[in-house]
Model the fold of this input.
Amino acid sequence: MAQLRQSAPPENCVAQDEVEQQLVAGLLAPHAHVSPKYLYDVLGSRLFAAICELPEYYPTRTEAAIFEHHASQIAVAVGADATLIDLGAGNCSKAARLFPSLRPKQYVAVDISEKFLQEAVSALRQQFPQIKMTCLGMDFSSELELPPAIGLRRRQFFYPGSSIGNFAPLESLKFLHQIRKAIAGSDGGLLIGVDLVKDKPILDAAYDDALGVTAAFNLNLLNHLNRLLDADFRPQDWRHRAFYNEEQHRIEMHLEAREDLIVHWRQGGIRRFAQGERIHTESSYKYSRQGFIDMLQQAGFGKVQTWSDERNWFMVCHAQVT
Ligand code: AVJ
Done:
């Protein structure tokens, strides 16, 4: 989800309307909520990149170490001549680090902003001229059908970073099912990174760091909303809240009103928030190894292989579809 993108262009009026309607419905709900995808405007994407460098935020570096340590076994699982389909490719750096070991035949970078992908991919083409590369600008979370030009040979989907954690378990299952269908009978699979359940203090710190970078990332959502809705949120009126909910196996991120306040937006929109009232901005689900394997199997995947770090904090999975 580390994509860099601007808000929908103003000429795109229908899409703009839909975004606005969804946002307003979420803000007016009894328990106000906003989709985590709005965390990623240009500044939000940079703040997320900074989060990945924080000592408390272990997922990025733990996953990278797993890919590095188990590169040859992972390459065997993925197999030769793969079409690597990178969901949420962003700057394509995670996939690029796997190219030397995986040696895919084709690379398909998928993300919302095609323009941003084009820049990243054209740099990669120079470095890996033997890999055929394609960019697809689409919102794969709603629809995963790939254009026929991609071909139906050895489709290996790549979904790193525990991005799957943003989906609630039922949606995750649906999404995995869609991926499984998109692989169809192409003798392919899915290579996915999943964050694992661990002690609450470690999870709490990873999403509420000492420097306040995650707080800035969360609060920046309000600046983004101000632009999208012409709203008058004041970030200083809100406080970052993030904690591990042990019953639901998820991190919850909220913005909490520091006092009673009123927010206005375009065309007379208005919402009162009482002191302590919250806007739910993100959930990040954590899985047990077996729980995630069960979900893959329920989604119709075949053989599953997993790799982890020595603390079992993060897991990389390969699931086959034959
Ligand atoms: C990009 C969804 C994987 O849940 O860990 C990081 C986003 N939010 N810190 C995560 C995030 C706050 C991240 N994902």
The pocket of N,N,N-trimethyl-histidine is lined by residues 1, 51, 59, 161-163, 165-166, 207, 214, 282, 284 (CB under 6 Å). Residues 213-229 form the longest helix (17 residues). The two ends are 28 Å apart (CA to CA).
